[in-house]
């Protein structure tokens, strides 16, 4: 993985340089956005609800034992905003969106479609990579925002349902709205942008470097997903440290 | 504008990118001492030949002889270990692609599956913003008509037969008004009638536009049917180059074996 990091950084930089072409490629960007939304929204809904619920279940019961169960709203609210929603949605995107990017570009490489673009002097970064990068960088933060709200809902629901926690929905959201600030949500959104850039770059790079036959497309997809996941977890630590130092 | 488009425009200017039909001019291709190895396997071994402007030059040889690798060098998809390619007097490599208008018709067609036939054919014009959308529609219809596929604009590549895909590939190449067209196994996997149609188009384009054509094939009938001159390549080496009559008269045993082998069991 590490030998390719230099190539990935160059690809990322080239796709930034290709951004002035975004308006011309708007049709492809909107197609990618629709595809990303279609493939992830329902799964994001289910995942986020249960992530919020299970987190509230663990923390709520522990807090109830020490008599500070009121804090559960704050805890679920901040955890979902800053950590759980961005990381879990990034993992979802690496699996669903990133893998589809790699397989699509990889099969284009294997079946000489990229060579055809080359003969027409069409830059694959402008034509294929940049629209996908823009789409994922727009879609992931939006899905993270959606996930935050659904996760809060899941937490509130389980706190009201569980007799050992026994915090009603109004109290849960009162505590949450008192303590969760806009900067907490912004913290999660900044992480989402970083993760989106990582997933887009790793997935497109793997697709572009696919060689051999159709079997190698599967290998590239596996490699793209695993590399994305490792980078997401590692970068999560460093971005968190960085944002904490900025008091974000 | 994309970097590719920018390079193109700097060299010739957008208006020079397209000429009216009939004004394309063939160009000279010179290959000198071209060598290429993949690890320890020699793919091309001191290949030299010259293709004259407006000529149909066929590179013939058995599978795995290095024909497609040679084609990839011409189009700038591969760089040689040593040797030189000059197109219209200008050295080319993968780092320095030719500024001449070259188009390639791929063995598989290499059409973009996510685009319709019309979008595939008009892609070059649309991406480089050389024409307006209505103009592109008109040019696409004209080129599709030329290859006998009028009215197919809205179909997707997976709805086409192998022969139709190759003809769409030719239409896509024609949109670039190329000086040089490279054909990679244009009749492979085709029935004899479809193969004949493709061969007709190659000859028609030569006569109508005077483009230089380089055809890579292992189809003997096609090679001798369309070639002005041809080369026979085996294990990365050129065995013979000449007119069809000269190649047939070659005394090289491998040439004779390739030309005369028959399936009489």
Helices and strands in order:
The complex is a heterodimer of chains A (248) and B (265).
Chain A: H1 5-17, H2 26-65, H3 72-110, H4 113-119, H5 124-161, H6 169-179, H7 182-208, H8 214-245
Chain B: H1 3-12, H2 14-17, E1 29-38, E2 41-51, E3 56-60, H3 67-75, E4 82-87, E5 90-92, E6 102-105, H4 117-127, H5 133-146, H6 162-175, E7 180-184, H7 192-209, E8 212-217, H8 220-226, E9 229-234, E10 237-242, H9 244-248, H10 253-260
Parallel strand pairs in B: 3-8, 3-9, 6-7, 7-8
Antiparallel strand pairs in B: 1-2, 1-4, 4-5, 9-10
How would you sum up this structure, described in words?
- Chain A has 248 residues and is an all-alpha fold.
- In chain A, 83% of the residues lie in helices and 0% in strands.
- The longest helix of chain A is centred in the first third of the chain and has 40 residues, at 26-65.
- The model of chain A has no long low-confidence stretch (mean pLDDT 94).
- Chain B has 2 domains: 23-101 and 180-265, Rossmann fold (3-Layer(aba) Sandwich), CATH 3.40.50.300; 112-176, no CATH class.
- In chain B, strands 6-7-8-3-9-10 form a 6-stranded mixed beta sheet, with helices on both faces. A 4-stranded antiparallel beta sheet of chain B has the order 2-1-4-5, with helices on one face.
